[in-house]
Amino acid sequence: MLRICVMGSGSGGNATYVGSEKTHLLIDFGLSTRRVAESLLQIGVHTDDIQGVVISHEHTDHVKGLTTFTRRFCAPIFLSRPTLEALTGVTINGSREIIEVGMAFRIGDLDILPFPVSHDAADPAGFLIRHQGMQVAHVTDLGCITEAIRYRVQGSDVLIIESNHDEEMLKIGPYPWPLKQRVLSRLGHLSNRDLAAYLQNDFDGRARTIVLAHLSQKNNHPELARLSAQEALAERSAARSDSFEVILAQQDTLSPVITIG
Ligand SMILES: [Zn+2]
Ligand SMILES: [Zn+2]
Asked: Which CATH code, of 3.40.640.10, 3.60.15.10, 1.10.3720.10, 1.10.472.80, is assigned to 2-260?
């Protein structure tokens, strides 16, 4: 059995829980320790039971809670050396485990494979979490879905994937032009349109639950993101009887708990 819950998602902070009966871990720690502890309690997990935190990249919205968390709790932080060296304004007080993007490792009874994504960070990673033949893919903060990423996420039972912005909203929105260019670039963030193209043309259809994550609060609207993904999924499954659940991860509230197996 695997349970997944996105505790918060977006440029204001990110953290996702993935756990089996025995092992509990977090992907990223960009929320306050208090907020994470409260969210975990809501799903019946105590923060003391967290056995590891895996870090996707060094951007503040993915790491800013680490200083306080590692002062109070002893779970090791798993991150690559380039990510560790690029951390600014954050101190890891407890133990850390150096991982290599592309090399699988294990925490308790969960197998974790970090894989490279295209984003303007030192060594950004997506993650596959595997347990008893089940697989969860967590891919946010990426400018584009490369062939390698398509290949990696195949066979996932749950897909947590970025649907950052609506390109039109971004273009007319409040961001200064250089920031717009950054978000739109191949090293930036994934648009609703890019995700829709993937879901329609390349997604293998195995995951019945798709979580749209890291939505921009300024350059996207949750219903636009949902519609875009649902239309793409409907398009691909027009000739079949596939049905998919689309969940929107939110900045300020935790997602429903997804249970598989
Ligand atoms: Zn981010
Ligand atoms: Zn980022």
From this structure: 3.60.15.10
What is the value of pTM for the model shown? 0.97
Q: Report CA(141)–ligand 1 centroid distance (Å).
A: 5
- Which element (helix H / strand E) includes 209? strand 209-213
What is the three-state SS of 157-173?
CEEEEECCECHHHHHHC
Q: Residues near 16 by Cβ (< 8 Å), separated by ≥ 6?
A: 4, 5, 6, 7, 9, 26, 27, 28, 138, 160
pLDDT digits over 76-105, tens only? 999 999 999 999 999 999 999 999 999 999
204 C-alpha vs ligand 1 centroid, how far in Å? 26
Distance 95 CA to ligand 2 centre (A): 24
